[in-house]
Design a protein that fits this description.
- With about 290 residues, the chain is of the alpha/beta class.
- The mean pLDDT is about 95.
- Helix content is about 40%, strand content about 20%.
Length: about 290
């Protein structure tokens, strides 16, 4: 869950980075008594995400600023839509503008891309999931954006679940132990509530991994035909995740192979920021 405290931590750090000693321009050129009204306007269609983050940037800058959110996170909007209205001291609005936009554009871009992937697999039971390929410091925000786009989250961090990848297996079996025995020995030290996932990149690795009674098996960079064979071999004994080579052009065919989960690093590492703008309206009476 993206809690208010988690939002404020990220936003406070971003504001400190952007205006470590205040906003020199606004302090010098904008009267302290000036007020303004600003609208968050969509320049293109997309899925809303990060409106609470947007509001936090203004609240942390000046508690006298109010933000009215008009479009809920997860909702589709068209170009020209007004997503939120900001009102209050002009200095604070101008100071927080860039941080508020940067984070909301980033999150809405991820939500929009995720929604496109989800639409491509809607005719199947497959889930679209993110990965740990997130922007350092922004993982909580970016993963919320994936959820807003209709996707699902993989493990949040290295501390949350076990994922044994090819490099782990290389070290585990370096002493001559079989994959099955090495996995069983390591798993014996885990709490019974720990979810264990193991990555394979060949069909002949599936049975030895399943013999260790893992929870999820990841088929990495498999062709659609091999994914179907892999799903048949697993035969419901574990959750099947597909990863690697996933794009908007390929994800539908991957989903049709019968896999349960498709993890897509591109949701967070390659999403384009959505084009949103903050249009400020100032009347002579506001300036005073």
């Amino acid at each position: 869950m993206l809690t208010p405290a988690a939002i404020d931590r990220v936003v406070a750090a971003a504001l400190s980075e952007d205006a470590p000693w205040g906003d020199l321009t606004s302090a010098a050129f904008i009267p302290a008594t000036a007020t303004a009204r600003a609208e968050l306007v969509a320049r293109e269609a997309g899925v809303a995400s990060g409106l609470a983050v947007f509001a936090s940037a203004f609240r942390l800058t000046d508690s006298a600023i109010t933000v009215s959110v008009l479009v809920e996170d997860g909702r589709w909007f068209e170009p020209g839509a007004v997503l939120a209205v900001v009102e209050g001291p002009a200095r604070g609005i101008l100071t927080a503008e860039r941080v508020a936009l940067n984070l909301t554009q980033r999150m809405s871009g991820i939500a929009t891309l995720t929604a496109r992937y989800v639409a491509e697999v809607a005719h199947t039971p497959a889930r679209i999931a993110d990965t740990r390929k997130t922007t350092p410091g922004l993982r909580a925000l970016e993963r919320q954006a994936v959820r807003d786009g209709g996707g699902h989250n993989h493990r949040f961090s290295l501390s949350d679940a076990v994922m044994v990848k090819d490099n782990h297996l290389a070290v585990l079996t370096a002493g001559g132990a079989s994959v099955t025995d090495a996995l069983r020995t390591a798993m014996a030290s885990l709490p019974h509530t720990t979810h264990v996932e193991v990555e394979v990149d060949r069909l002949d690795q599936i049975e030895p991994v399943l013999a260790a009674r893992v929870d999820t098996i990841m088929l990495d960079n498999f062709s659609p035909d091999d994914l179907r064979r892999g799903v048949a071999i697993v035969a419901g004994r574990a959750i099947v995740e597909a990863s690697g080579g996933v794009s908007l052009e390929t994800v539908g065919a991957i989903a049709e192979t019968g896999v349960d989960v498709i993890s897509v690093g591109a949701l967070t590492h390659s999403a384009r920021a959505l084009d949103l703008g903050l249009d400020i309206r100032v009347t002579p009476a506001d300036v005073g």
